Amino acid sequence: MDKKRAGKCAAVIDIGSSMLKMRIAQLQKGKIVDLDRLEYPIHLGHEVFTEGKISYESLRELSSALNGFSSLLKEYGITQCTTVATSALRDSENRAYILDQLKIHNNLSVKVLEGDQEKSRIYFEILTVLKDSPDLLPGKSLISYIGSGTIGLALYDGEIMISSESIPIGALKLHDMLGSIQNLTEDFHTVLEEYLDSTLDHAIRPLSGEEITNLILTGNEIEQIASLCNVKAHDGRYLLPVKSFKKLYKSIRSLTSDQISMQYQITQEEAEPLYSALAIYMKLIRSTKALNIICPKVELWDSLLRDQLYPKMKNLYAQHIRQNAISCAERLAANFDYNPKHTQAVRLCSEKIFDKTKSFHGLDNNKKLLLDLAAILHDCGHYVTAKHPLRATYHLLQDLSIYGITRQDRLITAFIAGFSEFDTPDFSQPEFLGLPEETKLVISKLTAIFRLANALDKSHMQKAMDIKVKTNGEKMTVTAFCNDNFYLERWAFEQCAPFFQDVFGIEPVLVVKETFI
Question: What pTM does this model have?
Answer without folding.
Answer: 0.89
